[in-house]
What does this fold into?
Amino acid sequence: MPEPTVKMTPMFEQYMRIKEDYPDALLFYRMGDFYELFFDDAATAARELQIALTSRSRDTANPVPMCGVPWHAAQTYIAQLVDKGYSIAICEQTEDPRAAKGLVQRAVTRVITPGTVLDDANLSAGSHTYLGAVFFEEDSGRKEGMGAFVWADISTGQWSGVEFRKAVDIWQWVQKIAPRELVLAESQSAPPANLLEGVRFVRLPDQHFDLRRSTERVLAAQGVQEPAALGLGGKNALMRACGGILAYLEQTQKCSPSQLQPFRPLNLGKRLLIDEMTERNLEIFRRLNGRKGKGTLRHVVDATVTPMGGRLLEDMLRHPWRDAAVIARIQDAVAFLHDDDMRREALREALRHVYDIERLSTRITLNRAMPRDFLALGNSLAALPGVLQSLTAPSDTTYATEARQNGDHLPPALSEIVRRWDGFDDCAELLARAIVDAPPAVITDGGLFRPGYDEELDAILDLVEHGEQKLQALLEKEQKTTGIAKLKLGYNRVFGYYYEVSRAAYAGPMPDHFIRRQTLANAERFTTPELKSLEEDILSAAERRKTLEYSLFQQLRARMAAQRERLVHMADMLAHLDYWQSLAHVGRRNGWCRPVLDGSADLDIRDGRHPVVEAMIGAGSFVPNSVTLDGKRRLCLLTGPNMAGKSTVLRQVAIICLLAQMGSMVPASSAVIGMTDKIFSRVGASDNLAQGQSTFMVEMMETARILRQATRRSLIILDEIGRGTSTYDGVALAWAVVEDLASRSNGELRTLFATHYHELTALEGQVPGVFTMNIAIREHNNDILFLHKLVPGPADRSYGVEVARLAGVPASVVQRARAILAELERGKDGRRPPEPRMTAVPLPGLSLPSPAGPPPQEKAVPHISALPPQGEHPLVRLLRDVDPDSLTPLEALRLISQWHKLWAEDPADPATPPPLEGIDDISPEEVRHE
Ligand code: ADP
It folds into this structure.
């Protein structure tokens, strides 16, 4: 803000008045051919744009910081600032400076903000940029109430939203959708601190979220009579969030947001819900290190060729379907395109010529389109016949032959596209006739239209381009009619064009229509009405051309803007076509199969692969694995050393389910998948610590959320949960979580649980539905070989030292670690180490902590008295070797299970097992108090 001593010229007064209304935006103040910024705005822009900061005032004691950018280059600068999270208020001259009396009138014509950008420079072609709004009304101080989150892609006009009773659910969605800007009511309580990163918050007065005002606004903007027409009937919170978003759009766009498509609330009942944490852990859009692109699921499955298809794919990855009929329809279309390589290639080729019809149409509707946008639209529309042709061409694939027998050539989804196809011949023809091949960047320069488009323009262009020739023709005509062969044509600034006759050449009288303009010493100069008129035409042609082209451009724009609904409809169909062909293409390229989806709670994936890991290490190197979950085997405990491939198997199961419910083919030889309603994927704290944000607390909060939100149809992937705390806490928590999950919903919940707590494998056989798998390792000459093969049963040990050696830990440290390990395993008095197998099946009579019982405790095993040394069962020797003082309860349990196994396996001893005194009557209470 200016110092009070800055002299307030009328211009600065105007500037200050305007700036007052936009305190949070950088004000781009138009002065002639520049946008100027002043005071703090100037300092900020100069710093961010690396441009010179100068001073406006000549008063060196009170300089006014200033910087500026030329108007024709402003777009690039604005894009840079918006990218950095700034908002820009564009203040234009709203009257012709030549006509202005005194100071030119100015006003802000629009505000460009990170969530409302339309310029391609700020948008990523295949991704959405969202503006969000949250409304939450707490129910008299309770944590529950009613709230909604609405998100809108202003560049495409798509908008949607969800309602929830709990604020925490709303914030979870905000995190998932990740809008660039979030609109909130002033009185709305602040969002959780971890949400603040990367989101620009906008506070609007509460009245903009008022129900009545919001309803009026929404109905007016959408041109409907009833909220129910938009799925907003009775959804007051959703309506109020919509109202907030519209209010903000009106403030920034300075016009009614006419580009918005009909609002469509997201029907959560029909979607597979994947929360933000799961999205992150499965590396769907970003790798764990935050990077997009290679190494993400999206990168592997995206073979779309249009921006619309890319965005639809993004939507589908974000919330796949949970509606068997919808999925089957997509699968049919995908299978059809999968089987017919020629057709798919033709379709892909045709779609490559289709640009972003959706965003082009938005810019045209909002009058923000540049001439090149019309060219792009014209070319896109011209490509439509090729797209249709690729669908309707005859085919001889199996599908097509069968379908023909049923009287239809195409699967239902594709035949619906053909039925609802809009060829846009009228607009394609118009644009092809109108716009030149290489139009100028801006409208005001002219040079936009083709010859033949408009008669008047043609005449003007003819003059501009052929003015000299016309003058020459006129001269020749006059030479003929006058008979003066030496009549010449000249030009000067005072008289314009004139005919000149030298006295030497002709001294006789001139015809009547020759009007004398000037007499020189040896020549006379004349004009004629015809010459005068031609001269006026020529001199004004350039100006008239610009004006006429501008008005023709506006007419063309209006005609195209009127096609918004048709264009959006076509964009939607093209997006789907592109999405389906992409799924087909990826499936075909990678040899995937079509999964069978059913209503069961089972899962049977044969030879499944992790598509991203496979893409990274090469198709031939990946070891496929099969996973089956059914009525008897619901919760898989997966053990194996680090680097064996546990996380990979876990994630590949989740990804295969997700892909299947997108309608995609899946990386497996076959897959039968009971449809899931939610997928939860969590990684233990220690695995996430590299990101510096995951603590044990977060891990437990996440676990709590899963336990709260999972339903009988959910799929849960837990990777090393419980590792972020001490061993006993960790194992106890993991244990209790497994028990809880296994006993849920009649055991229908599907869980894969990777853990290095071998103790947990004891739950197999104890808790119904729990079973163990491990990933095979081959040991050879002290070396370990990761086979990456999933096999039944628990792993024998953790191979941590070997993994450390493979990782390059110095040999001396590895050797020392081995020695310490051996020492630890042997126990302090150097007796024989326990058997490597750590399966823990309890002895009869000794119950593991029951689901409701206490977690395992330390120092809880009672002393076992020695048995006679002679003719003794091997078990007795083992028992004697035990040093109870150094045993933890869990080790004791493990030992007991080994003994039990040994006992059961030893056919040499026909005797019934002798009772082991002091063991079979341990009660949980004693365990706790010992
Ligand atoms: P863990 O979770 O057991 O520590 P990961 O799942 O992270 O192991 O796998 C470690 C590495 O092993 C992966 O990055 C990948 O390179 C490789 N890998 C995992 N599974 C397979 C497989 N099935 N086939 C081939 N390589 C695999």
Remarks:
- The first strand starts at residue 26 and ends at 31.
- Residues 810-929 form one domain.
